[in-house]
């Protein structure tokens, strides 16, 4: 499962650094900056081994919905793609809410790829109107080629920063793509990242709280090799 050239098979499409920096500054400066939280605790969150099908996933979704009073979309991932979230907790309730919605936004994107559904309403639920077309374009880089995602993609090292006004935030995290790959739905061909590709990617997601109390993704930036285990 090697790839002789090109980009990683599972990395998400992101904005240029200058765009991300400006967006984050606007969100956090307007609200006043606050310290980060790298999280605490251990274990995978929200369907670590089988997507969102297990009891722990249902409990997490229920708790998140109850906390904000908003009915969130159900997101399912098959056992063939294990999107795991490590240490995805914070003692601060607001930061935990930010982390929860950031997690679900990422799950929604990969679920849309697997379901061959670039028009997923779960994606638009967690993405702002400005970034939703970008996420849809990323999903279509798979669906237009009859590709789905397989394997395991750990997400770890989360850090949440929330503005003092409580409306803007950012979340950074790392992914390990070493055991994730794509599979062609028609031919069954499996393809991994190009040989020599650093499997670690750090993402920084700017988020804003909408009128319903949902923390939505407003921009994403990534740096390959910017983190490690």
Provide structural commentary:
By secondary structure, the protein is α+β, with helices and mostly antiparallel strands. It is 30% helix and 26% strand. Strands 1, 2, 3, 4, 5, 6, 7 and 8 form an eight-stranded mixed β-sheet that branches.
Quick structural summary:
The chain has 229 residues and is α+β, with helices and mostly antiparallel strands. 30% of the residues lie in helices and 26% in strands.
Properties at a glance:
229 residues; alpha+beta; eight-stranded mixed beta sheet; globular; disordered N terminus
- The count of helical stretches stands at 5
Which H/E pattern describes the elements?
A: HEHEHHHEEEEEE
Proportion of residues in β-strands: 25-35%
- Mind describing the biggest β-sheet? 8 strands, mixed
Cα end-to-end separation: 23 Å
Helix content: 25-40%
**Unreliable stretches, pLDDT < 50, 5 or more residues?**
1-6, 15-67
Number of DSSP-assigned strands: 8
The average pLDDT value, as a whole number, equals 79
SSE-based structural type: alpha+beta
Tell me, what's the shape?
Answer: globular
Q: Report the C-alpha radius of gyration, rounded.
A: 17 Å
């Amino acid at each position: 499962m090697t790839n002789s050239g090109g980009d990683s098979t599972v990395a998400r499409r992101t904005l240029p650094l200058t765009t991300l920096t400006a967006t984050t500054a606007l969100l956090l400066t307007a609200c006043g900056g606050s310290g980060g939280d790298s999280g605490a605790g251990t274990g995978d969150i929200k369907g670590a081994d089988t997507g969102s099908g297990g009891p722990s996933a249902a409990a997490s979704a229920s708790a998140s919905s109850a906390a904000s009073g908003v009915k969130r979309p159900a997101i399912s991932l098959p056992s063939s793609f294990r999107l795991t979230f490590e240490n995805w907790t914070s003692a601060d309730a607001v930061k935990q809410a930010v982390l929860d919605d950031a997690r679900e936004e990422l799950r929604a994107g990969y679920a849309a790829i697997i379901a061959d559904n670039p028009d997923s309403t779960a994606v638009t639920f967690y993405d702002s109107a400005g970034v939703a077309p970008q996420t849809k374009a990323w999903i279509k880089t798979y669906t237009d080629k009859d590709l789905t995602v397989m394997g395991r993609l750990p997400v770890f090292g989360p850090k949440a920063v929330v503005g003092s006004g409580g409306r803007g935030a950012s979340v950074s995290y790392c992914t390990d793509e070493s055991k994730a790959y794509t599979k062609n739905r028609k031919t069954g061909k499996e393809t991994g990242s190009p040989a020599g590709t650093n499997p670690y990617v750090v993402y920084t997601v700017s988020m804003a709280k909408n009128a319903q109390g949902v923390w939505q993704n407003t921009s994403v930036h990534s740096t390959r090799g910017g983190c490690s285990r």
